[in-house]
């Protein structure tokens, strides 16, 4: 039975985490504990091995049926976009690294299937947890959820306890997976608070789709609150207040009403053009990682998909995904977004994106600057060509474009384009249709690309600046390092100068320049990037309407003057102070901006 707040003093506590889904909520909370079934570390007799493998395979099929039914339920009650969240779970049931290796271990180690599966899932989850990329890191939750679903099938006597919400409540959990969320009577869920997780978890995606405020990364929420405690959840600020004061309750109630009006105001911008007050158009597109997110892009009126990261198709696989497997994912997005453009980035593996089937026997000591991304693909045409063919084939079904990542030298670009031409010829020989004039672009992520941009722009249809890696390489700061977090800032004048060089070097060739890094999703960053002359900003879908709001409220000439001043400043703190002074009134009320501006007020360490 969960603990309750009876006979306990109502001590006010403020817990701080990360915003996962916007909105605020107040009410009693319910503490949910995910209890794992007990597995048996028993040894099998030789004659039991075949039967244990059969039992394991049967459990996989039962889990597949459960997930398929769950997907159908979400499809009926929520929608197609949200139902596709469970497609990733179904993929894990066929994952060779997880399920295939467990099956082999049953035969070689002669141990209980549930014990071996849990051990393997925990190993893979720890590996994923070390990846700096937040989206890929949070797939560990999905992996463990699927593994435990299979374990429960193997341990038939230990069924998952049904969770009942008999009154509207804020759900508090150490971690929450999509299947647990869908067990709940959603109409009684006021909001979600978790110790772990982040804004790219599938629960966060579902919460946003269901218009439920959510806060993740609270660390100690489950050790602080008890079922029945009255709490106030702020999904914009990323806070959970336990036993708020009457004054705080009233203030939060006022915020609820203000946010409701603000959301209606933002939604009213959905079909309006992204144009400044003096007539400058800046295209706003979406970054996505899964086909499910295409629906989110459409719902906020995105110009198109400015960056489709293809790494998830490869992640954790014991084999390289086939051309047909890739085609299915690419075609779905291209068809769903048509006639909007979809920019498909080729495999950007290595560094923080581990693809097991591509790892060498002697991994690089510094993988971020080693054998990764386009360098890996150029040396592995057996991997690269099937992906290029799959993208070309998908282009026959909509408006697809190809983006090559981490181009540091024009010769790398030419090699990649040569392999693209090989893929074209292979399709023509087989009579397979594809778009003949598919646009080709290169990512500007390393200083050499920005410095030598003239050569790249001459041979590309568009350039896309990845400010995440560009900041990392320009400032020599590992973007995954917590110790150096205060030094990693894409608004550093040196990074902005790289952006300015890229824009200026591309103009004489008429090459469009986009930015697809996180800086584009920050309204402060959007103002500077627009002022530097960037043509398109690509960001998480949930940021598009806020960025559109700020762009429609400013004059481009003002942004241009501010950007030129920013280039001459000493550091990022000065840049942020300049922007705060010049655009503070315009930026007021935008959820992400207060956090972005406040970074510049802290003393450097």
Task: Please supply descriptive tags for the structure shown above.
alpha/beta; globular; 605 residues; 3 domains; Enzyme I, Chain A, domain 2; Glucose Oxidase, domain 1; disordered C terminus; TIM Barrel; eight-stranded mixed β-sheet; 13% strand
Give the secondary structure arrangement, pairings included.
Elements: E1 13-16, E2 18-21, E3 24-32, H1 49-77, H2 80-83, H3 85-92, H4 96-109, H5 113-129, H6 134-137, H7 139-154, E4 169-173, H8 178-183, E5 189-194, H9 202-209, E6 214-216, H10 221-224, E7 230-234, E8 239-242, H11 246-267, E9 283-288, H12 293-299, E10 305-309, H13 311-314, H14 323-337, E11 341-345, H15 373-379, H16 381-394, E12 399-404, H17 410-429, E13 440-444, H18 447-451, H19 453-458, E14 462-465, H20 467-475, H21 493-507, E15 512-515, H22 523-531, E16 536-539, H23 544-552, H24 556-567, H25 572-587, H26 591-598
Parallel strand pairs: 3-4, 4-5, 5-6, 9-10, 9-16, 10-11, 11-12, 12-13, 13-14, 14-15, 15-16
Antiparallel strand pairs: 1-8, 2-6, 3-7, 7-8
Helix pairs in contact: 1-3, 1-7, 3-7, 4-5, 5-7, 14-16, 16-17, 22-23, 22-24, 24-25, 25-26
Would you kindly provide a written description of the structure presented here, covering whatever features stand out?
Strand 7 and strand 8 (239-242) form a beta hairpin. The protein folds into 3 domains: 13-35 and 161-246, Phosphohistidine domain (Glucose Oxidase, domain 1, 3-Layer(bba) Sandwich); 46-154, PtsI, HPr-binding domain (Enzyme I, Chain A, domain 2); 278-601, Phosphoenolpyruvate-binding domains (TIM Barrel, Alpha-Beta Barrel), CATH 3.20.20.60. 49% of the residues are buried. It has 605 residues and is of the alpha/beta class. Residues 592-605 have low confidence and may be disordered.
């Amino acid at each position: 039975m969960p603990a309750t707040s009876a006979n306990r003093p109502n001590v006010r506590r403020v817990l701080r985490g990360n915003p996962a889904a916007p909105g605020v909520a107040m009410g009693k909370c319910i503490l949910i504990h995910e209890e794992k079934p007990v597995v048996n570390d028993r040894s099998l007799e030789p004659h039991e091995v075949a039967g244990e493998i059969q039992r394991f395979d049967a459990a996989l099929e039962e889990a597949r049926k459960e997930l398929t039914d769950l997907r159908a339920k979400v499809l009926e009650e929520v929608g197609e976009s949200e139902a596709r969240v469970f497609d990733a779970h179904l993929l894990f049931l066929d994952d060779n690294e997880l399920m295939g290796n467990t099956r082999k271990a049953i035969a070689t180690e002669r141990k209980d299937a549930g014990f071996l599966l849990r051990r393997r899932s925990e190993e893979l989850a720890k590996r994923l947890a070390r990846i700096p990329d937040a989206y890929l890191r949070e797939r560990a939750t999905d992996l463990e959820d699927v593994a435990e679903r299979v374990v429960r099938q193997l341990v038939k006597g230990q069924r998952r306890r049904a969770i009942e919400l008999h009154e509207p409540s804020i759900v508090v959990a150490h971690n929450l997976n999509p299947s647990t969320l869908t067990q709940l009577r959603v109409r009684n869920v006021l909001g979600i608070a978790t110790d772990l997780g982040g804004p790219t978890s599938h629960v966060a995606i579902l919460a946003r789709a269901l218009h439920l405020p959510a806060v993740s990364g609270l660390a100690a929420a489950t050790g602080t609150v008890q079922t029945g405690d009255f709490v106030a959840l702020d999904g914009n600020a990323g806070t959970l207040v336990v036993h708020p004061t009457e004054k705080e309750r009233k203030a939060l109630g006022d915020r609820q009403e203000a946010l409701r009006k603000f959301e209606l105001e933002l939604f009213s911008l959905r079909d309006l053009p992204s144009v400044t007050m003096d007539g400058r158009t800046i295209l706003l597109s979406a970054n996505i990682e899964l086909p499910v997110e295409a629906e989110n892009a459409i719902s906020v009126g995105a110009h198109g998909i400015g960056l489709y990261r293809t790494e998830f198709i490869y992640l954790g696989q014991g084999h390289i995904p086939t051309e047909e497997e890739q085609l299915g994912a690419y075609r779905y997005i291209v068809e769903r977004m048509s006639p909007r453009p979809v920019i498909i980035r080729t495999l950007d593996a290595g560094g923080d994106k581990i693809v097991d089937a591509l790892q060498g026997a002697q991994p690089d000591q510094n993988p971020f600057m080693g054998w990764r991304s386009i360098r890996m693909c150029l040396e592995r045409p057996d991997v690269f060509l099937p992906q290029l063919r799959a993208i070309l084939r998908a282009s026959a079904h909509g408006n697809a474009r190809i983006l090559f990542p981490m181009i540091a030298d024009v010769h790398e670009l030419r090699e990649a384009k040569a392999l693209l031409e090989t893929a074209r010829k292979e399709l023509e020989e087989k009579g397979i249709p594809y778009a003949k004039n598919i646009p080709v672009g290169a990512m500007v992520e390393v200083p050499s690309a920005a410095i030598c941009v003239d050569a790249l722009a001459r041979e590309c249809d568009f350039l896309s600046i990845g400010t995440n890696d560009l900041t990392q390489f320009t400032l020599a700061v590992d973007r995954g390092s917590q110790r150096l977090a205060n030094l990693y800032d894409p608004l550093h004048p040196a990074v902005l100068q790289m952006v300015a060089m890229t824009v200026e070097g591309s103009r004489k060739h008429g090459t469009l320049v986009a930015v697809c890094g996180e800086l584009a999703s920050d309204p402060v960053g959007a103002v500077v990037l627009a002022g530097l002359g960037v043509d398109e900003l690509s960001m998480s879908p949930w940021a598009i309407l806020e960025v559109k709001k700020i762009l429609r409220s400013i004059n481009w000439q003002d942004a241009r003057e501010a950007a030129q001043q920013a280039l001459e400043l000493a550091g990022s703190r000065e840049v942020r102070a300049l922007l705060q002074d010049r655009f503070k009134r315009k930026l007021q009320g935008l959820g992400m901006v207060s956090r972005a501006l406040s970074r510049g007020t802290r003393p450097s360490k």
